[in-house]
């Protein structure tokens, strides 16, 4: 029996007077691959950023392995945790973004090594060995000493994924990691994620690649206007959608 890795209870997030997340509830088992789909502005990326504490949230709870993320709740009083505690919790999740955010003056290997040396306090030799292992895993062993400017967009995104996974997170978050890539480079990045899914890595993916979500997910969540509108088995969701809103969304998506 898989154990619960992530639990989201009544998550609320506002930007000024605009409520972006309106009470999201979600549970994720260890080893699950969940794709989050929905129109732009439905709250998908905001939810990921709250899990990683890149965004503060105004209500609800996020628990990772039973531990409250970001805030302490004592009765009705809610208090933000210390920055040191939040940094420790943030290291439990790895995140890959639309933009690769690689340091241009560092090689692929040095980009992957940075967190291992600075955060995990590993020696440079230990960090280099781990970096080489993960660059090999994403098909870039021969590019370890190349700078980002010498790599294609797809290769840079694979370095960014290797950098996140090298930190050995409990949960990987992917935020539209193919949206900034030329169409011919999308496949190589999705192939890496498929391989990680096959290895049993726990992953939450915000994606607009519907065919990929259908093939790789153990579960799909459809978000609409800040709430989870429908969720379930990919085949049920894509072939027999229950809500009119999902039917409409799939008509305009790349799933066919």
Automatic annotation (TrEMBL):
Q: How does it sit in the membrane?
A: Peripheral membrane protein
Q: Name one Pfam family in it.
A: ABC_tran
Q: Which Gene3D superfamilies match?
A: P-loop containing nucleotide triphosphate hydrolases
Q: Which InterPro entries does the record cross-reference, listed alphabetically?
A: AAA+_ATPase, ABC_ATPase_HisP-typ, ABC_transporter-like_ATP-bd, ABC_transporter-like_CS, MetN_ABC_transporter-like, P-loop_NTPase
Q: Which UniProt keywords apply?
A: Amino-acid transport, ATP-binding, Cell membrane, Membrane, Nucleotide-binding, Transport
Q: Which GO terms describe its molecular function?
A: ABC-type amino acid transporter activity; ATP binding; ATP hydrolysis activity
Per UniProt, subcellular location reads as:
Cell membrane
Question: What stretches pass through the bilayer?
Answer: none
Domain called ABC transporter: residue spans = 6-250
One GO CC annotation = plasma membrane
Entry-linked PANTHER family: AMINO ACID IMPORT ATP-BINDING PROTEIN, GLUTAMATE_ASPARTATE IMPORT ATP-BINDING PROTEIN GLTL
What family does this chain come from, according to its entry?
Belongs to the ABC transporter superfamily.
Q: What is this protein called?
A: Polar amino acid transport system ATP-binding protein
Source organism per entry reads Rhizobium giardinii
């Amino acid at each position: 029996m898989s154990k619960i890795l992530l639990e989201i209870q009544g998550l609320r997030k506002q930007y000024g007077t605009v409520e972006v997340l309106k009470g999201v509830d979600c549970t994720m088992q260890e080893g699950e691959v969940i794709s989050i789909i929905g129109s732009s502005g439905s709250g998908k990326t905001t939810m990921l950023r709250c899990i990683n504490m890149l965004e503060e949230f105004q209500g609800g709870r996020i628990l990772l392995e039973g531990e409250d993320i970001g805030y302490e709740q004592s009765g009705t009083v809610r208090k933000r945790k210390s920055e040191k505690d939040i940094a420790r919790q943030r290291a439990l999740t790895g995140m890959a973004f639309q933009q690769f955010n690689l340091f241009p003056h560092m090689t692929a290997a040095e980009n992957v090594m940075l967190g291992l040396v600075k955060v995990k306090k590993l020696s440079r030799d230990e960090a280099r060995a781990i970096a080489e292992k993960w660059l090999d895993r994403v098909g870039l062993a021969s590019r370890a000493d190349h700078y980002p400017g010498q790599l294609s967009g797809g290769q840079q995104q694979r370095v960014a994924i290797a950098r996140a996974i090298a930190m050995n997170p409990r949960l990987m978050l992917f935020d539209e990691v193919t949206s900034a890539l030329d169409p011919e480079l999308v496949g190589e990045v999705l192939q890496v994620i498929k391989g990680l899914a096959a290895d049993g890595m726990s992953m939450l993916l915000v994606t607009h690649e519907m065919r990929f979500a259908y093939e790789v997910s153990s579960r799909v969540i459809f978000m609409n206007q800040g709430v989870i509108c429908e969720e379930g088995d990919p085949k049920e969701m894509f072939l027999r959608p229950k809500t009119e809103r999902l039917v409409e969304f799939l008509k305009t998506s790349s799933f066919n």
